[in-house]
Amino acid sequence: MLDVKDNLQCPFCRTDNQCGVNAIATCWCREKTIPQGLLDLLPLASKRKRCICASCIDAYNKSISLFEARRLSR
């Protein structure tokens, strides 16, 4: 089971995902397209529970293979 503070961490890089989905203003993630391939890489326990940070989305979009290599080396 995920701790509440875990919801604030990107499931890939573990940094603050800057999620504002529960804020009054619209979260940045509502404006950004998240590739299905990246969503498919989420661990089952994180799906629909944790936000991917903008840096990981950008890294994936820039180079899927480099993102995969970096993710697997952790």
Protein model, in words:
The structure is a single chain. The protein is mainly alpha-helical. The chain has helices at residues 36-40, 54-62, 64-72. α2 crosses α3 (64-72). The longest helix has 9 residues, at 54-62. The radius of gyration is 12 Å and the shape is globular. The two termini are 21 Å apart. The model has no long low-confidence stretch (mean pLDDT 81).
Along the chain, the helix and strand elements come as HHH
Q: Span between N and C termini? A: 21 Å
Shape call: globular
The number of helical runs is 3
Structural class: mainly alpha
Largest sheet: none
Classify the helix fraction into a percent range. Answer: 25-40%
Let me know the number of strands: 0
Low-confidence stretches: none
> In angstroms, what is the radius of gyration?
12 Å
Mean pLDDT: 81
- Strand residue content: under 5%
Question: Brief overview, please?
Answer:
31% of the residues lie in helices and 0% in strands. With 74 residues, the chain is mostly helical. Helix 2 crosses helix 3.
What are the defining features of this structure?
74 residues; mainly alpha; 3 helices; 0% strand
Question: Which helices and strands occur, and which strands form pairs?
Answer:
Blueprint (H helix, E strand, L loop, with lengths): L35 H5 L13 H9 L1 H9 L2
